[in-house]
């Protein structure tokens, strides 16, 4: 851990937000907490002369610092009706991006687990085991008919354009 990092934990109890700053051998006056008057989402924690600015997910006010033996507890009044699922805005945005990526990742895998239907297995088998003329006929008939005709007869398909046929 570098000297610039701030070790902390947090929890919400009703309308109070508690941030525990973990620093051993802390004395009175070595830690202060100030809420920005223009932006109540910004909390500046000064620890042993070093400033740490936290961009919180919601607005806060009335910081109160309580020094204990192994930590300092900062209590804040929550001034907005924001559910603090994350303490910092950056954590919340990262979680949203991660959730979105997971959603699309699961969608990518969804089709891979499906077993091929019997019809698809038959068509795949005909194509894989067929002659070059059979493969050519299947591709040409399927493409020209916009997917409505699938023929294996190259003599018939090569004679002209394959017209789309709607199901009956």
UniProtKB/TrEMBL annotation:
It comes from the Eukaryota. GO terms for molecular function: protein-folding chaperone binding. Signal peptide: none annotated. InterPro entries: HSP20-like_chaperone, SGS_dom, Sgt1-like. Residues 87-168 form the SGS domain. It holds the Pfam family SGS. PANTHER family: PROTEIN SGT1 HOMOLOG. This is Sgt1-like protein.
């Amino acid at each position: 851990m570098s000297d610039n990092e701030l070790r902390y934990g947090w929890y919400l109890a009703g309308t109070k937000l508690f941030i525990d700053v973990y620093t051993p051998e802390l004395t009175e006056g070595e830690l202060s907490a100030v809420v920005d008057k223009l932006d109540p989402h910004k909390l500046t924690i000064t620890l042993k002369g070093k400033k740490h600015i936290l961009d919180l997910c919601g607005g806060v006010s009335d910081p109160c610092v309580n020094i204990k033996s192994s930590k300092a507890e900062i209590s804040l009044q929550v001034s907005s009706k924001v559910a603090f699922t994350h303490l910092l805005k950056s954590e919340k945005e990262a979680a949203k991006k991660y959730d979105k990526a997971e959603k699309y990742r699961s969608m990518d895998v969804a089709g891979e687990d499906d077993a091929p239907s019997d019809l698809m297995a038959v068509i795949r088998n005909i194509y894989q085991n067929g002659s070059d003329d059979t493969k050519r006929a299947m591709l040409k008939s399927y493409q020209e008919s916009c997917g409505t005709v699938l023929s294996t007869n190259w003599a018939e398909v090569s004679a002209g354009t394959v017209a789309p046929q709607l199901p009956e």
